[in-house]
Specification:
single chain, 7-stranded mixed sheet, 35% helix, binds MU-OXO-diiron
Amino acid sequence: MTKEITELLPGLHYVGVNDRTTHRFEALWSLPYGVSYNSYLLTDEKVALIDGMEEGFAGTYFERLDEVLGGRPVDYLIVNHMEPDHSGVIGQLRQRYPGLQIVGNAKTLEMLRGFYGITDNCLTVKDGDTLSLGSCTLRFYLTPMVHWPETMMTYWEELKVLFSGDAFGSFGALNGGIVDEQLELAPFWDEMRRYYACIVSKFGRPVQQALKKLAGVEIELLCPTHGPVWREHIADVVSLYDRMSRHEGEPGVVVAYGSMYGHTARMAEEIVRELAARGVKPIVVHNLSVSDPSMVLRDVHKYRALVVGSPTYNGELFPEVAALLDRLASRGVAPRIFAGFGGMTWAGATPRRWKEFCERSAWELCTPAVEFRQGYNRSYRELCASLAENVVEKLRG
Ligand code: FEO
């Protein structure tokens, strides 16, 4: 009989569930490849469940727990993170295992009360505290704001396993395999970036603090709450997280535009050609009326320069363009090189808005912005070329 790949290590079982049904994570972010809600069961003299489950998947989840436990009760639920995609089954867990103790820090317990009205059978832990399950020792590291104030990580000291919560997680359901070496990883690197850009990017500084806190912690198995469990590529994952949380941009340009009747799109095409003619690579182009906002955020987060185009619409930016700038400003993406272009019919709003955005976000604005009147035509080619040149100069600088 083949070995159960859900047994990650002797006594450590993966009991997570794949979600290939939900369209939007947090009702916002698309899930073209699904998502996994990872949960881990540690069976020792005591049994501990580490991270719970989204409520809608309780049925499958409890079936998995029953298979592994064979009638044993769960003694502890370690709550690394209270967001309902991991805590939604807490009430049901308490009913199934009446002796269950919920383990969390002071902020976790405050949220337990607020979300679920739970105040009893809780064990409060502080940063650095340990809990013995028999032969396994769990140590808790508080890592606030990765992604909520109560977030913490749990470390199984003897086998050097870090249960990291949302940190190091990614979108994408797990297609059969669970650990990195069992999976085709190519889609997960992009999905990790997209997860980070959409969910965690506002909290770059806390992520950096968490990485510093964990710098001396040896990790042989990295178990996040979403996406693959990492064994072979732990150093790559930690390094990517370090770069992403420093908002480090890679060489490359994103060109994102809105266009009602195709004129701004034509100017975008011209600018893209001029960038390519100057050796810029990669260039990623998004029509904001068509592209998935989470993919746009991922790409802007990844590359060092952003060129945005917009028609003037009701005296303002085209709504999809304004939405992108708002998403970026609210996430505090570190300074990028920015250039703007646009079109107007009788009064232009775009140059003013580019300036305001760059001032508000401390981004480096390439001037002058390029704006055509009524229709785009070839007479604007020189302006497009100089905009591309300005971007390239700043990229080189
Ligand atoms: Fe997967 Fe912040 O919850």
